[in-house]
Design a protein that fits this description.
Length: 260
């Protein structure tokens, strides 16, 4: 599959699609526009849009709007905080096809509750956390899918295993022994840039890391999932191999600003 291709002659069309995705539009229409953008990005690098999962990031989103997204065909949702999702999960229990992923930083003292209420944890960043999740999953009699979060930009304000740190190898070797965790791949949040193209090098770094880990053929370590790309840069992420894009604002609109 070719990687690293720039934007094609359809740039004006893509800008038009992007500009139309605004808060005042119905959620179903926003989702349709995002899916069209996914299709166009995949086509530029010879990929099938079916190979890319659209995750709706539903943090701070009320239950009714989550239901609208579900009715429009969204099946995978991402939540940032354990307590916030715990408070609304009971009211959304009837969404039988929904798959809930924790994508925010997870403290070890919330590992048990996370293993209980989420279908997957996409922000694993330490062996200690992995051990806590494995213990919790074992107690529940379930296998918990996880992604390893990589801090591709080396930002102190962000969680994730540093890109060139020996911690990563310690984590990978430790995961081989944790039978109740299913390692599926990598996740990253690159440094924010106004221009989506500026995030391309970080997406390439994550893809290359994924490929190098996969080449090692470590026991029980799969590298099928590459979760990268958000509302402002997911097209570039798809061009660089993303298999899951995490889209919030382009689906639900801008989050309300917190009170001062």
């Amino acid at each position: 599959m070719p990687h690293g291709l720039g934007f094609s002659p359809g740039l004006e069309s893509l800008r038009h699609l992007r500009d139309r995705t605004i808060t005042s539009m119905p959620i179903a229409e926003n989702i349709a526009l995002v899916r069209e953008r996914i299709t166009q990005a995949a086509a530029r690098v010879g990929r099938s849009p079916d190979s890319i999962t659209l995750m709706a990031v539903s943090k701070t989103v009320d239950r009714e709007r989550i239901r609208q997204a579900s009715e429009a065909g969204i099946r995978v949702f991402g939540e940032n905080r354990v307590q916030e999702f715990q408070e609304k999960s009971e009211a959304l229990r009837d969404l039988k096809d929904a798959e809930w992923h924790l994508i925010g930083h997870l403290q070890t003292n919330k590992a048990s509750k996370s293993a209980e209420i989420f279908h997957a944890v996409d922000s694993l960043d330490s062996l200690r956390l992995a051990q806590k999740l494995n213990q919790a999953a074992a107690a529940l009699g379930k296998t918990l899918p996880v992604l390893i979060e990589i801090n591709v930009g080396g930002e102190e304000s962000k969680s994730g295993v540093p890109l060139d740190s020996p911690e990563l190898d310690v984590l990978l070797r430790g995961l081989e022994k944790l039978a109740y965790l299913e390692v599926r791949g990598l996740m990253a949040i690159p440094p924010f840039a106004q221009k989506p193209e500026a995030t391309r090098p970080y997406f390439r770094l994550l893809r290359d890391l994924r490929d190098s880990i996969a080449a090692r053929k470590l026991p029980r370590i799969q590298m099928d999932v590459l979760s990268m790309g958000m509302s402002h840069d997911f097209e570039v992420a798809i061009e660089e191999g993303s298999t899951c894009v995490r889209v919030g604002t382009a689906i639900f609109g801008e989050r309300p600003k917190p009170n001062p």
